[in-house]
Amino acid sequence: MTRPFSLIATAFAFLLAVPAGAQMGLGGVQVGVPPVQELPQNLPQNLPGSVLDPLLDRTDRLTDSLAREVQELAEDRVRRIDRLVRRNSDIIERDVRGEPARRGELLLMDASPAAILLAETRGYRVLGREEVEGLDMEVIRIAVPQGVDLGDAEADLSALLPEATVSADNLYFRSGGSALPASAPATPVRRQGTNTPVGMIDGAPGRSVPITALRGFARGAGEPSDHGSAVASLLRSAGASRIYAADVYGTDGAGGNALAIARALGWLAQQEARVITISLVGPDNPILSRAIAAAQASGAVVVAAVGNDGPAAPPAYPASYRGVVAVTAVDRRERALIEAGRALHLDYAAPGADIFGLDRRGRSQRLRGTSYATPLVAARIAAALAGGRDWRRSLDAEAHDLGPRGADDTYGRGLVCRGCGARR
User: Would you list the domain boundaries of the chain?
Assistant: First the structure.
């Protein structure tokens, strides 16, 4: 079958735009997708078969390779969750959707006293009632009856109490991707500082990264982490100087759960954080959804990563919630990372490969992943707020358009913080 010229032209342009060493993901390095404006124009209309046939074969191999890589990213996510549940079966199990959550515990909102009594007659037990400080929301922790799977209990209690909001305490994972020691000491290029309070929900930063305050929301909280240190150091290098860090992981094998993140959001609201950056991903959860909405109602701009499980993975939360600034990442050639996940909307891209931050010991590390693009966007929003500007208008003016003209599903409204996270 003869292929239409438009397909041939597109394939030829794509191959010219992508360096040969990057096309097949050599050495485990994920390939990027070239911006449309890099593609050559006015391709010849009469290329001979001796040129076209090898070109089209190479294009087919490239397409197949990219498709396999995207599929492998999604499968890796499933395998990681399977391993996590198996290795921590004493504290983690799956909810009714198969998502990982804290074992043996459900969360309730909007339940009347009569509903709670009814649940207790079916073997459920109240573990505690909690007013999430700063968010004006109450969460009731419920123990699942002995010997009942979490998913079965969630379905049963939801049917028993249709007027209540029933949820597992789902787990959320760092969207950091890879981090490697830098070959030489690196000093990130610093932007002009701002005193706008910025909150981060992650692991605890190491002592080498100055922050304003740290509070823990997990067992063993305060234990320094490489991921939290990198996020905090990128915030500082991009200009944020008042950083409030909420540690939702600590040393807890079931850390990073929805209730811990809700508590962290409440504390940050009390600190009057104007911007909150969250480089974590997981499933939709009604507790987290309400906490995000409450933090936004307090005046905070919530910024979140789309994750690194690839475009075939489910939409990432909290990035997919309404009003959350969803962030993806590009490499140093301003190509979208192939491992970048997706959300139900996309706002901005920022550098997320070959950038540098600090680990928990204060050593420079080379970073890759949407986790590391997110604090850069948060810092730019904080800078706009510090100047009394409309942050959306300010970032839109700064954003460098990539891909199709205007907002798109790969780069959002464009690339911000160009050059952030780089070495001097």
Answer: 5-87, 92-170, 173-398
Amino acid letter, residue 26: L
The region that residue 110 occupies, defined by phi over 0 for left and psi between -120 and 50 for alpha, beta otherwise, is left
Measured distance CA(1)–CA(3) in Å, rounded:
6
pLDDT tens readout for residues 54-111 = 645 555 666 667 778 888 887 888 898 999 999 999 999 999 999 999 999 999 999 9
Q: For the chain, how are helix, strand and coil distributed in percent, rounded to 5?
A: 35, 25, 40
Kindly tell me the number of DSSP H helices and DSSP E strands found in the chain: 10, 19
Q: Which of 234, 269, 260 is nearest to 351 (CA)?
A: 234
Structure-token pair, residue 108? 């309730």
CATH of the domain spanning 173-398: 3.40.50.200
Structurally, at CATH architecture level, domain 92-170 sits in 2-Layer Sandwich (3.30)
Query: In 3-state terms, what secondary structure has residue 190?
Result: coil
Q: Which two tokens stand for residue 174?
A: 């760092």
Instruction: Write out pLDDT tens, residues 120-134.
Output: 999 999 999 999 999
Handedness of CA 356, 301, 342, 224 (dihedral sign): positive
